[in-house]
Amino acid sequence: MDIITLYKANLSFIPVAKDKRPISYLLPNYSWREYIYRRPTLDEVSLWNNIPDIYIGLICGSISGNVEVIDIDNHGGNASEIYKDLIWQLQDRDINIYNKLVIEMTQSGGYHLIYKHNTGIVGSKKLARQFINDKTDTMIETRGEKAYAIVHPSPNYKALKDDVSTIQTLNDNERLLLIRLCEGFNKVEKRRPFSSTLARKISKQSSADVDTRSLKEIIDFVNQYMDYASVLRRAGWHLDRVDWNGQEYWTRPGKSYGISASYGYLPNKFFVFSSNADPFEPNTYYSHFDIYALLQYNGDYEKACKNIRNDLLKIT
Question: How far apart are alpha carbons 69 and 48 in whole angstroms?
């Protein structure tokens, strides 16, 4: 496949170098931004097509028919493992979504999942992060409106399934499921505003009821052994499914199907995707004690601390 084929597929794209930067001398006014709003002309494409070893940056978003790219980076050397796990989950969950994807391998060993959608104008978003050498690294993200992604037939980019001239459209539910599965790989906890407040409340507990050391030990025990599933079910959550690796997927109250949260990707942590799962915040990890305090005491951590001993037998 050459880049003339991309032109015929009504996609917008730009010439880029191996370092992923636009080749400015080939672009009007030395800027690639113009191609966010218009597709290249046949004359431009013919010129680019004659340049040896040129890399192609696919412009995502509305100009290319609402193309979105999920980028699985290989900064931690684990992209292949993540990709295989994601595809296994996707094929097991909805083979039709997998069938619609264009899949490519990048020059660094990462992966691109490419599709179109009807959700409207959507920007880029970080979906999952990890720690590398004690620093936060984005391992899965989307490339959306006003962004571009390097694609085959760029040198060292391999088309694993279909090619970008045949990009298919995911409906809203299909896209949402794919995004949720990607978010489930997140390994970096989002700090919650009440976490520091909880620490202060624990430290201020008087020895009249529970001494500070004892309270911390109880909370540690709850975080390790509490029957979190019973607390979730009493609040209206239901378990959607359990994967081969033991990771659980949960559906929020008021919804009969679909993934709202996962459990187990980080040990003993509940990760909420949904923005409609009050009192939980989206894209945030929660411990067993967080679940207990939020669902049984409406987020009143002070009251949860005072009553935790009495409730302990009920929730373990």
Answer: 23
Average pLDDT of the segment spanning 30-48: 95
pLDDT at position 190 is 64
| Residue 59 one-letter amino acid | I
Distance separating the N- and C-terminal Cα atoms of the chain: 59
Q: What is the pTM of this model?
A: 0.75
Strand partners, 117: 170
Q: Which residues contact 103 (CB under 8 A, 6 or more apart)?
A: 111, 112, 113, 114, 159, 160, 161, 162
Mean per-residue pLDDT, 51-78: 96
Which of 50-64, 127-141, 199-213 is predicted most confidently? 50-64
Predicted local confidence at residue 205, as pLDDT? 46
Kindly tell me if the per-residue pLDDT of 310 is higher than 80: no
DSSP code per residue over 4-52: HHHHHTT--EEEE-TTS-B-GGGSGGG-SGGGGTSPPPHHHHHHHHTST
User: Token match 């540690």: residue?
Assistant: 220
Omega of the bond leading into 279 within 30 degrees of 0 (cis) = yes
* Ramachandran category for residue 201: left, alpha or beta (phi over 0 → left; psi -120 to 50 → alpha): alpha
Instruction: Give the C-alpha separation, 165 to 11, whole Å.
Output: 8
Q: Which domains, ranges and CATH numbers included, belong to the chain?
A: 3-183 (3.30.2250), 194-315 (no CATH)
> Average pLDDT, stretch 274-295?
88
